[in-house]
Amino acid sequence: MMDQDYEKDYENYSYEYLEYGDFDDSKGVYTQTETLHIISVVIYSLSFILGVSGNGIVIWVTGFKTKRTVNSLWLLNLAVADFVFVLFLPFSIDYVLRDFHWHFGLVMCKLNSFVSMINMYASVFFLMVLSIDRYVSLAHLSWCQTYRTASRARWLCVGVWIASALLSCPALIFRETMDFHGRVVCFNNFHDTAEEAAVRHFAMVLLRTMIGFILPFSAICVSGVLLTMRVRQSRAVHVSRFSKTVSVVILAFFLCWMPFHTFSLMELSMHTSLVLHNVLRTGFPLATSLAFFNSCVNPVLYVLVSKKVRDLLKRSCLDITKNSLRELSQSISATKSASLPPNSNNCQPEEPLASSVV
């Protein structure tokens, strides 16, 4: 009886982006369109490879190779959010490959969803901060010279991370695992009666869409319009290459996440229409894959749009290559010197060289 109640709960109001399959209650069989499997796995795998390497390079450059400025702090924290998220992508890849069978336990089920939500909130919040800061730094230069400091930016970054974590707490509360037709699924279990669960589901989707997308992008659009007006009014204000890079990153985030939030709102009415149910079943996995892909897009955009970033990466790679070759040459020379006979041609290894072997 308890298993039947759980199955009813799962079918009625816990559908999420990684759970869209064909559920045949009469046969008790679960199937998923093979094409969606393949597309999701390919996009997740590509996001993981590009995301780890690309965001890792951005973290290395902005965190260790450049002067710590306000702009570099925004980009560093944005890259950290994406980097942590893509590290968890192999769990989602495994989940899809196993026909949505979760075998990592309840803690990882909660943590995986928690990290994905933090990535969404932190990314859009930092983009909002970037956009507003871009306008203020160009339109109110005297104010920025006094108050726009790296120390204040660090505290703002801490505030963004705390707000993102608090908004992501529903994943820790409602995300659960359950045996369903021979598989363990990781899903949102809103508990209690169907009416209360529907209210909680509606509130969570509305909060995620409003706070995680609509309001931040409204602020981004307003600051962008104000900046455009200021540039047209004053010839002394010029849009920098960094500002253009930020605009491209913001546009990419909008294009990648807008379908996900659109399907999230459609999901609230999925039980009223079989056609809508089929649309969500097909479209939600693709929309989620596109949203996940955004985590590896930013580093590529930095390289394509910003010549300064390309020059910095080229210079950093050359420095690493030179240092590596220098260390390799010293190591080979030290090994050869240490292997020579003591009286061979009356040559003795030099003291510094002998020390380098140790």
UniProtKB/TrEMBL annotation:
Biased composition (Polar residues): 336-348
Membrane topology: Multi-pass membrane protein
Alphabetized UniProt keyword annotations: Chemotaxis, Disulfide bond, G-protein coupled receptor, Glycoprotein, Membrane, Receptor, Transducer, Transmembrane, Transmembrane helix
Transmembrane segments: 36-61, 73-93, 113-132, 153-174, 205-227, 248-266, 286-305
GO biological process per UniProt: chemotaxis
Residue stretches making up the G-protein coupled receptors family 1 profile domain: 54-302
Localization in the cell: Membrane
InterPro entries reported for this sequence: Formyl_rcpt-rel, GPCR_Rhodpsn, GPCR_Rhodpsn_7TM
Cellular component aspect of the GO annotation: membrane
Molecular function per GO: G protein-coupled receptor activity
Record's keyword annotation contains Calcium: no
The keyword ATP-binding belongs to this UniProt entry's keyword annotation: no
Chain segments carrying region Disordered: 336-358
Lineage: superkingdom: Eukaryota
One family name in Pfam for this protein: 7tm_1
Family affiliation: Belongs to the G-protein coupled receptor 1 family. Belongs to the chemokine-like receptor (CMKLR) family.
Record-given protein name: G-protein coupled receptors family 1 profile domain-containing protein
Species in which this protein is naturally found: Coilia grayii (Gray's grenadier anchovy)
